[in-house]
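Predict the 3D structure for this chain.
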Amino acid sequence: MAATGMPAAEYLDLLAARAAQILDLGRSAAYGRSLTAVTRLAFDRLRDQDPAAAELAGICAFLVPEPVPASWFPHAAAVLPAVLAGQAADLIGWREVLARVAEQALARLDQHGLVMHRLTQAILRDHLPPDQAA
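Done. Predicted structure below.
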């Protein structure tokens, strides 16, 4: 904002509409990649390593950025995408899926549930293929 002289209200409007693009512009001097690039890289790595965990992250991108009880997903296994449903139906498999999403720093997991930051959500929503986002 300081470099462009953009008013805060305009920045917030742009952030709401085009978060991934806006966040891709900022780079830290200490870290050469933008938040968007790092988040997309983590998601793509997750998609390659554990498709069920990537499906969970994709769903979380559309949920409230407040703790979502992890137990909701196994109870809803019948309506989840196939790969995620199979893991959610198995207690050990489900906990492994949760751990992988947390390991990639795409969401935080604690006793209250799963929480994904609003910026991570915006970046993932923009990065998901349209059919998956729908």
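The first strand starts at residue 108 and ends at 110.
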